[in-house]
Amino acid sequence: MKKIILLFLVFINAAVFGQTEETKTEKTRFNFFGGIESNSQWYTNDIEREINHPEDPLRSNNYLNFNLNYGKWSAGIQGEAYAPNAILNYNPKYNETNVGTWYVNYKAAKLDVTAGYFYEQFGSGLLLRSWEDRSLGINNAIRGGKVTFTPTDNLFFTALYGNHRTGFDVSEGEIYGFNSDINLFKMLKIEGSDLSVGFSYVGRYEKTDEVDPNFDNLTNAFAGRVNFSKNNFYLFTEYNYKSDDAVLYNLDINNDFVKPGSALLLNFGYSKKGFGMDVNFRRTENMSFYSERVPETYTETLSTSINYNDKIMNFVPSLTKQHHFNLANIYVYQAQAQVLVDPDTGVTKAGEIGGQIDLFYDFKKDTKIGGKYGTKIAVNYSNWNNLKADYVLYPPDYKTDFFGFGNRYFSDFNLEVTKKVSTKATYNFAYINQYYNNRLITGASNVIVKTNILAFEGDYRFSKGRAAKIAVEHMWADNDRKNWAAILIEYNLNTKFSVFASDMYNYGYKHNPSILIDDITDPFEIHFYNFGGAYKKGSTRIAVNYGRQRGGLVCAGGVCRFVPPSTGLGITLTKSF
Hints:
The strands form 5 sheets. The chain has a 24-stranded antiparallel β-barrel. It has a two-stranded antiparallel sheet with strand order 6-7. The chain has a two-stranded antiparallel ribbon with strand order 8-9. It is globular and about 60 Å long. The protein is 5% helix and 58% strand. By secondary structure, the protein is mostly beta strands. The model is unreliable at 1-26 and 299-303 (pLDDT under 50).
């Protein structure tokens, strides 16, 4: 491995030197690019919150990547440093300075070959997706080989093999994959509409220590999908099936609890000028899928997701509105792909069923509602339920009703009105109603939280890049920590420099522990303040903030990471070159 890295660095050095020499006489054949990212936190004591900073209060996650293109060839390497430790509640396997990923790629007109670490997604990702999200601490790149063959513009084939990245090592479980996509209508030269079909296979091979297993070492998963569009209408549907595999029970596999998994996804919509509609329906059953069956046990604070989302093979995001208002992100829904039959708490679930609908409408200019500049309305509703099933606690088992709806996990209804009142000023009003069943979602306290949120946001643009924004929010909640109020003020001094200040305040709790959803020990009726600024020039951006982090979930793209309560200084630096 060290020889490969050394050879790669020598290759980069030679390429860069060669580029320097060539630029004077001929057009360069090399393209060299990369990026730097550093996220640092200095955790401090907070007497009011009774928080003591952790050991090694100064922590940072740092990434440096280099990429080089030469004709049809490209190569890249990413170094990572978590020094002296990763920021709080990251996967503890990120604990050193080392090479994280590397790759070599050859890409021709019809053939694309990669060796090393790579990212891939088949279809919607419900069977296979490997990706990196540094804010969530996810990097489940596959180390191995991938070949993509495109014999025509309408035929696409991909085959891959490898092992998941886990920290600075790879998983014991092996991943096999094949994917095909065929654009039928273009192949048959049918005009006016578009129809494509796809098929995927994913295999996970892991030897088990069970003496007489009731499942195979190789778990097979298949998917078929159809994508159709005509004029302003589109439709996508996909069905996924996973063969029999042991179900996790108390973070271990149960040889007597073996079930298949499945997922059905349907998305359709219609759009034209001034109007849009998008509808999603999804049903998942036992679709928790990892390259190693048994999760590892860590001594640090447990993540709300198994193994800190380490070695996760598929992508099952929550299909709900991704709110930009702070208070709407306190009670966040996480997709329920796993099975739980818990005789201690009586909580039983085998997946989820539900969906969401988005409606958009633009009132025309110079109308009674549209006014001089027009008015935009967006309505969103999502609802997610447990699968209706007959559950057995001893021995654990279940039998589902395929289209049956069980108890509700979560729902979110929201309405947003955006009004431009002048060439410089825009207002946004929002109403949000949420339902959060904590017992079913987390398996913890038997509390249901119902909230109503009102929010206002105003933007004003001055001359020469100056701009200001203010957001004011209030939440009424019937349980947990009760009510919240929040304010955010941002000001751009120019196109390069901006500052902000925000505060969230919790009030109304009457010292009744039975209505709390968790044991986070933050005091009540305190201010969660935060302030800072950012400077951007070219491809370089540096941001600094100081304040209090409320304990809870941080989400991106429907996938979440738990962050503990903390107070401190944060510095982020990014640069591309």
